[in-house]
Amino acid sequence: MSENPYAEYLALGPLLSQQHPVSREHDEVLFIVIHQATELWMKLVLHEVGYARDRIEADDLGPAFKALARVSRIQHVLIESWQVLSTMTPTDYLEFRHMLGNASGFQSEQYRAIEFMFGRRPAGYLGQLDEAGRTRVEGIRHAPSLYDETLRLLARRGLLGAAWLERDWTRQHELTEEVVAVWETVYRDPTRYWDLYELAEKLVDLEHAFSRWRYEHYRTVHRIIGGKRGTGGTEGLAYLRKAVDFVFFPELWEVRSRL
C-alpha cells in the first residue's frame, strides 16, 4: 500500500513539481499557478460540455442540465481567479514579462476548443496552435457545437425544419429569424415546452458567465499591461474586446427583445 494514497491518487508529486519560473521574481509563481489552474478547470469544462452535448443529441436533457449547471459554477471560479491575478501590479509583471518569449494565451488549445465547442468557429486563430493542437481543435470544428445540437433537438421536436439537422458545421452560426421565432414560442409557453425552456436558460447562464469571464480577463490585462500588445505580438486588448462582444447563442438573447 502507498505511504500516501491521497498524494498518489491525485499525482501530487508530478502536479506540484510542474511550476518552473524563468526568473527569480516573486510574482511569477502566482502567474504560473493561475494559468495552470485555469487550464485544469478548462479541461473539466470541456469534459462537461462534451457530455452535455452528447446527452442533448440523445434527447436526455436531465443529465445535460446538471453538466451545464456545473460548467456555470466552474466559470464563477475562473472569474474569481482574475481577481487573484489582479493583485499583481504592472511593475511586478514587467520584472519577468520579457522572459516569457513568445508564450501567449492565444496558444491555449483548450480555450480555443471551448470556443469551438460553444459555437465560435474562426479558423484563422488556429495558427497559434501546434500541429497536434490544430488537428484536435479542427475535429471539434467539424462536428456540431453545443448550440448546433440544441437546434437539431428543436428540429427533431418538429419546431425547426429538417434542414437544421445537417449543415456545414465549420460555418459560424448567425442569428436567424426562424430560430428566434421558435425560441419565442418556447418562452411564451414554458409549461408546454418546459425542458426546452430550461435548456435555453441553462445556455444563457453559460454564456452570461463566459462573458463575465472574458470581461474580467480584459479588465485584468488592461490593469496590468494597459494597451500594449500581448506576448508573442498578439493584439492584446483589441482582441479581448472583440471576444467580450461575441455572442454564442444569438437567438436566445434576441428573443428577450421580442417578448
How does this structure look, described?
This protein has 259 residues and is an all-alpha fold. Helices cover 62% and strands 0% of the residues. It has 12 helices and no strands. The model has no long low-confidence stretch (mean pLDDT 92).
What is the topology?
Elements: H1 5-9, H2 12-16, H3 28-57, H4 61-85, H5 90-94, H6 109-118, H7 131-141, H8 146-156, H9 177-188, H10 194-225, H11 237-245, H12 250-254
State Rg: 20 Å
Low-confidence stretches: none
The number of E-state strands comes to 0
Q: Averaging pLDDT over every residue, what do you get?
A: 92
Largest sheet: none
Q: Could you tell me how far the N terminus lies from the C terminus, measured between alpha carbons in angstroms?
A: 62 Å
Helical stretch tally: 12
Taken from the alpha-carbon principal axes, the silhouette is: globular
Helix content: 55-70%
Which class of secondary structure composition applies to the elements? mainly alpha
**Can you write the helix and strand succession as a string?**
HHHHHHHHHHHH
Strand content: under 5%
